[in-house]
Amino acid sequence: MTLNANFAAIDLGSNSFHMIVVRIENDQIHVIDRLREMVRLGGGLDDKRNLTPEVEERALACLRQFGQRLKAIPSRNIRAVGTNTFRRIRKPGPFLRRASEALGHPIEIIAGREEARLVYLGVAHGLPTSSEPRLVVDIGGGSTECIIGRGFEPMQRESLEMGCVSMTHRAFADGVISESAMESAVLRARMKVMPVRHDFTRDHWFEAVGSSGTIRSIRTVLREQGWCDSGITSAGLKKLRRALVKAGRSDAITLKGLSEERKPVFAGGVAVLSGVFKELRIEQMRVSDQALREGLIYDMLGRFDDEDVRGRAVMALARRFGVNEAHAARVERTAVALLVQALDAWELDASECTELLSWAVWLHEIGLAIAHSQFHKHGFYLLTHADMPGFTRQQQYILAAMVRGHRRKFPDKLFREVPSGKRVLVRRLCVLLRLAVLLNRMRSSANLPLARFAADGDALRLRFPEGWLDANPLIRAELERENARLEPAGFRLRFA
Fold this sequence. Notes:
Elements: E1 5-12, E2 17-25, E3 28-37, H1 53-70, E4 78-82, H2 84-88, H3 92-103, E5 107-109, H4 112-125, E6 134-139, E7 144-150, E8 153-160, H5 164-171, H6 179-193, H7 197-200, E9 207-211, H8 213-225, E10 232-233, H9 234-247, H10 263-280, E11 284-287, H11 292-304, H12 309-320, H13 325-346, H14 350-363, H15 375-385, H16 393-404, H17 412-415, H18 420-439, E12 452-456, E13 459-463, H19 468-471, H20 473-486, E14 492-495
Parallel strand pairs: 1-4, 4-5, 6-9, 9-11, 13-14
Antiparallel strand pairs: 1-2, 2-3, 6-7, 7-8, 10-11, 12-13
Helix pairs in contact: 1-3, 4-11, 5-10, 6-10, 8-10, 9-10, 12-14, 13-14, 13-18, 14-16, 14-18, 15-16, 16-18, 18-20
């Protein structure tokens, strides 16, 4: 863990945007600032999943404010993630660029199950140590995450497409909270939970824990009315539903402990939690004050302490698809040797680039598990859609693009989807991957010399021991073909 440093985590949810700033001193985490803005991003999507200009500007204004607070914090100590609504925007690229510029830091879009992993990580660090399995439920604006874990390790994760904002729009769009509308909303929530019910029922966990603003608001309201002494109970939820129906409209709710800004989506959140309680047979739930943003902090600290879950995810995927580990290790040695010689010329971060290049090496042949023909394309599909703990969607796409581009025609169009700040780097790393695979064509370390590699921009030069290419005409022919494939993409490869 890095000592005496500030870290920041930004959670860009469908209902509200949150930022937490902490300081690490002597291996202890101290919260020094929290910012929160009710943006209601999820309410700004039209029927075609485009973001309305009004909501977009509200989001950008909030991000500019957050960005002011981040200026004194090193970029490597900051993580900003977008969740359900960012995932649902039809073409997120333009908004993502504007949002990142407003914040002054790249924003990553995380998949639902990765969101669940991070939520569990944050919640688990805020609870007493226990060896018993726990169920964690987090209700956001657009999705609900359910996780069963033991200690700090999640064992079962699901992300369900329902949240307090989306449920409000479907069941209480006109603001009316009738008995039939509430029953319908609870039933709708139960139907969302039903497909995963078997994996999350009471038999699989010792206690239930809730996180997120929705669940904390429900706990506060129940406590203020005297319906629960602590946490949330099924009986208390039943009384709360009756009270909401009695109020009749969201703007007429007068429950103690409920803030004005929470009122418009409160009935939707209560319906979602009620459906989860009923379907998973929960009677009592304790409430955590930690969630996704705290999980982001602990995930960052894990990376500093060489506990990066991404490396484990890569190796697990490689083994799952039967990657030839001896060959992958050979290609990795060659790729890293080429990279080391290019670090100064390309002004690269050694740690970041070695990590990314090594991951791509270990995954470049996973497509063989489907078919040998076009296996690089199969690998691209698998990596685009795989569940990879620790990775954002952008990071998975970068890996997928490198795997897709490691042989045959250089797919320059794919790299246009890589964030502009990473595009040149990823293209060059992909070329190093291609060369490392080519030089290991014989799938043997015998007779493979340490080639000298030099780079001047996209002009590349490989130099082998005298007479080696003459003794290996197949490699010479492959290098000539490789140069022809790289030239249309702007690279020039010379060798001798």
